[in-house]
């Protein structure tokens, strides 16, 4: 196989453990990357390119009718994305000017425009990670206060490097559990649960907001990706491959390495994964990371009039509060499809079956 470096900052195999093995844990991997030879600065744009004239005009892209029409499921995407190199560079510039200083705090807030949203551009090659790395380093060099935020941002690019490295050395990452013990995990065959999750009708507002954001824009905030993935694989115990397949079909940044590494990380079956028993509480996550409820209210307008106190747990709202907010649970918005504590316990019991600690 011949490689043409450009997709990554560090080619797979260029940063290995002392024994010459691939890293399976992120922190030492990234530490080693940070002391390795830094990525080369991006080349300047050429003044001109001597294109070969095509033999004949051929088809235009429109001739191929690749855009969805029946239905046009990408109708709203134009508001959110500007595909191509110019759009990618504008996005990077805006992020560096307006958000990178607060990245360390804001990156976990789905209600804020606090991350770069470069993922589809990095995936499609609209912009190279070397360009992003170089531009971010310049910000860090420019004023000291930003250095911590820039480091955090570079570490996220580092997770991308780590995922690609894993996929390169373990090419079955998209199909098989990285940790073989998970092969015996008693996943549930819950088609109704999966459909409720896919369509944003689980009755848990943060989870539903994320899935609706995904459907409408092709994107979901990273914090919410973790919460929704945890809900599917733990509260519903549906196999991570089902969620991975849904994200693959719907994400504008769908990327084999990042997606399967992300799903296996959340499910607990991956390299350096979150332990399976770390089960996100979707109510607490909503209250913590969307404290004013702006994200949930945007994506679930039927709950917009609920007071903050009940926004992430409408089933606890007294009847008069639901009535004042114009919400009838089960009619305007679903009742929760599982009860958090019971689902959590069932997930832990299932995990006990593969660890022998029931
Ligand atoms: C279950 C799950 C599935 C995911 N699927 C994908 C996917 O298909 N494609 C994808 O690009 N990312 C995926 N991610 C990672 C992450 O959610 C997105 O990269 C991030 O939300 C993109 O937003 P951003 O560009 O604003 O990120 P920023 O916070 O601005 O980060 C900058 C860049 O770093 C990279 N990055 C950030 N976080 C991660 C991460 N956790 N893992 C790997 N790379 C990261 C991305 O290329 C991103 O554009 C997934 C995460 C989870 C938990």
TrEMBL record:
Ranges of residues in domain Cryptochrome/DNA photolyase FAD-binding: 153-352
Q: Which residues form the Photolyase/cryptochrome alpha/beta domain?
A: 4-37
Report which reactions are catalysed by this protein. cyclobutadipyrimidine (in DNA) = 2 pyrimidine residues (in DNA)
UniProt remark on cofactor binding = Binds 1 FAD per subunit.
Q: Keyword set for this entry? A: Chromophore, FAD, Flavoprotein, Lyase
- What sort of enzyme, by top EC class, is this? lyase
EC number(s) of the enzyme?
Answer: 4.1.99.3
One GO molecular function term?
FAD binding
| Region feature (Disordered) | 103-123
Signal peptide as annotated in the record: none
- Does the keyword Transport feature in the UniProt annotation? no
GO BP annotations listed: photoreactive repair; response to light stimulus
The answer on whether this UniProt entry bears the keyword Nucleus reads no
Name the Pfam families on file.
DNA_photolyase (PF00875), FAD_binding_7 (PF03441)
Q: Which InterPro entries match?
A: Crypto/Photolyase_FAD-like_sf (IPR036134), Crypto/Photolyase_N_sf (IPR036155), Cryptochr/Photolyase_FAD-bd (IPR005101), Cryptochrome/DNA_photolyase_1 (IPR002081), DNA_photolyase_1_CS_C (IPR018394), DNA_photolyase_N (IPR006050)
Q: Which PROSITE patterns match?
A: DNA_PHOTOLYASES_1_2
Q: Composition bias, kind Basic and acidic residues: at what positions?
A: 103-115
Site for Electron transfer via tryptophanyl radical, residues: 187, 240, 263
Write down the required cofactor(s). Answer: FAD; (6R)-5,10-methylene-5,6,7,8-tetrahydrofolate
Binding locations of FAD: 103, 115-119, 153, 253-255
Protein family per UniProt: Belongs to the DNA photolyase family. Belongs to the DNA photolyase class-1 family.
**Record PANTHER family:** CRYPTOCHROME (PTHR11455), CRYPTOCHROME CIRCADIAN CLOCK 5 ISOFORM X1 (PTHR11455:SF9)
Q: What does this protein do?
A: Involved in repair of UV radiation-induced DNA damage. Catalyzes the light-dependent monomerization (300-600 nm) of cyclobutyl pyrimidine dimers (in cis-syn configuration), which are formed between adjacent bases on the same DNA strand upon exposure to ultraviolet radiation.
The protein in question is named: Deoxyribodipyrimidine photo-lyase
